[in-house]
Amino acid sequence: MKWFRRSKAEDVVPAHLPNAEEAAQRFWERWFELVPVVSAALGDGEPHRVEDELRDLVSSLHPDLVFSLEQGHMAMYALVITGQEDPRLRPYTDAWIDAAPPSDMVWEFHDSVPPVPDPTEVIVNLGQVKMRLGDYRVVAQVDGDVVDVAVYHPALADLSDQHRRTMTFLPLDVTLGERLAGERLRRVETAELEPQGTISLLELRSLVRELAGRTER
């Protein structure tokens, strides 16, 4: 999984259309022109060849959206565009996914980070640091219909503040799916030392899904 954002605040971003439906239509028109090049780059294992074009394309939908290229669940590849649960951006992601073509054998599309089948098998590379999600431990406290969590991994203390924040939230998103995490996780903290009474990411998934199912009945 590789997330792409604008690299610098002063980067020039194409003006996005204030009408979300028109912006989504323009996105997909351009996507159909780019997709052969994108598929070829991914097939060659060189996604960097199309990063700039895709970044500009997503920014034209809205400059605050982020996106990732991933292995698909049912298709070969997946394009994820998300507003990271920002309500300002929901009209754009809603319009984008509503106008998306049907998934096929090559591409599928998601407007939030979907849960991976087994997050404990995921390894994230941050420069020289490799973080296996199976090494994460979590303390979870249920309060009504939400959960407060403290997240621990032995390598978190060695990361920059930005990377530490990313690697605190990313395991939760890929374990629960971004939407369920946004709905059910209230307070998220990074634990500097391994707390007592921790559970695994898969145990957290079972806990939160059970809570969601119980409260939605």
TrEMBL record:
Protein name (Swiss-Prot/TrEMBL): Uncharacterized protein
Organism: Lentzea sokolovensis
Lineage start: Bacteria, Bacillati, Actinomycetota, Actinomycetes, Pseudonocardiales
